[in-house]
Amino acid sequence: MSRTPSTTAQDFVPFATAALDFHRALNVPGGPLVTSRAELDALHSHLVSLHGLLDAHSVRVGPLLPVEGDHLRAARTRIWQAADHLHAAYHAAPRPDSGEVPDREACRAGLPEGAPELTVCQRHQRTAHLVRRRTTPTDLHSPFTGLTRR
């Protein structure tokens, strides 16, 4: 089992980072602005993908380098928390057709606004299933990452 990643694999993470920076520079003007639901959905999708990448790394690295694995698991948890907040922000954002702000509990009722608008909920629920298998409730709600290993 190799302890170092292959040097032949293309690293696309810098391109994703540059794309986010470019998107922000072009699409987010200065001053107050309501974030669209489409933007929140796209950001949620990005964080869920990042969560999956960190999960893959933490599962592979943890047995080889426990301290690094601890840090990767903590980062994975924090990314999930950020995705959870984006999901909540999506539901707090005004609807594009009416400008109406939906009820706080709308997501728990399934697809109250109908597909495809709530793909964010489907994605969130699929990822939440993985989070429940790999993370304890204490990890999710603790302000401290628990990293004490040296």
Question: What's this model, at a glance?
Answer:
By secondary structure, this protein is mainly α. It is built from five helices and no strands.
Q: Describe it for me?
A:
The protein has 150 residues and is mainly alpha-helical. It has helices at residues 13-27, 37-61, 66-92, 119-134, 137-141. The protein is built from 5 helices and no strands. Helix 2 (37-61) runs parallel beside helix 4 (119-134). It is globular, with a radius of gyration of 18 Å. The relative contact order is 0.12.
Question: What is the topology?
Answer:
Blueprint: H1 13-27, H2 37-61, H3 66-92, H4 119-134, H5 137-141
Helix pairs in contact: 2-3, 2-4, 3-4
Which terms summarize this structure?
150 residues; mainly alpha; 59% helix
Given helix and strand content, the structural type is mainly alpha
Sum up the overall morphology in one term.
globular
Residue share in helix: 55-70%
The span between the termini is 24 Å
Total E-strand runs? 0
Cα Rg: 18 Å
Strand content: under 5%
